[in-house]
UniProtKB/TrEMBL annotation:
InterPro entries: P-loop_NTPase (IPR027417), Porphobilin_deaminase_cofac_BS (IPR022419), Porphobilinogen_deaminase_C (IPR022418), Porphobilinogen_deaminase_C_sf (IPR036803). GO terms for molecular function: hydroxymethylbilane synthase activity. It comes from the Bacteria. GO terms for biological process: tetrapyrrole biosynthetic process. Pfam families: Porphobil_deamC. Residues 132-175 form the Porphobilinogen deaminase C-terminal domain. PROSITE patterns: PORPHOBILINOGEN_DEAM. This is Porphobilinogen deaminase C-terminal domain-containing protein.
């Protein structure tokens, strides 16, 4: 059976398998230390769990999805083997898994997205964009900012040079702007 979602077809099996935490094997060997590290990683934006095939990453993610469900933390598991490695393919798989045509815009601020076999999504990585975003985030993290001190950063690449333009606004209305360029 197929459903239309966002102008694309999504398999019912994908919808059903990803709305629930994956099944855990009966002979599961618990890994509380790794689960604790995943739990601690929730404070960050991204956590990667990388190991060669056969080391139990999928099982670990399934166990963590179950723990998220028990704790009431919204989580979804996507498998890189079941989606087209394009931006639209990723978003459509997320929408299908959640049965929510508005995702990711409708997700709560804090959401756990578990992507198994993420290495198959390598075509989604655009190195120049990644470099620019990393520079912008580093600037914003270093300055701090907040509601009382607005800050902004914009980075771009031209050849092997990355340029970062930053702005810091003071409460009294003063604005400090600057631009810095260097090798990528």
């Amino acid at each position: 059976m197929r459903h239309t979602l966002g102008g694309r077809m999504a398999e019912t099996s994908l919808l059903l398998s990803k709305q629930l935490a994956p099944r855990l094997p009966a002979d599961l060997v618990a890994r509380p230390a790794l689960l604790a590290r995943l739990d601690a990683a929730l404070a960050g934006k991204l956590t990667l769990c990388v190991a060669p095939a056969g080391y139990g990453k999928s099982t670990l993610l399934a166990e963590y999805a179950r723990l998220c469900a028990e704790a009431g933390t919204p989580a979804t598991t996507l498998d890189g083997r079941n989606l087209q490695p394009t931006p639209d393919g990723f978003v459509n798989a997320l929408r299908a898994a959640l049965n929510d045509p508005g995702a990711p815009d409708t997700l709560p601020e804090r959401y756990v997205l578990l992507v198994d076999t993420y290495e198959l999504l390598a075509p989604l990585d655009h190195a120049p964009t990644r470099s620019a975003v990393e520079a912008e985030r580093a600037f914003l993290a270093r300055i701090g900012g907040g509601c009382q001190v607005p800050i902004a950063a914009y980075a771009w690449l031209e050849g092997a040079t990355i340029t970062l333009s930053g702005l810091i606004g003071a409460r009294d209305g003063r604005v400090v702007r600057g631009t810095l360029a260097g090798p990528v």
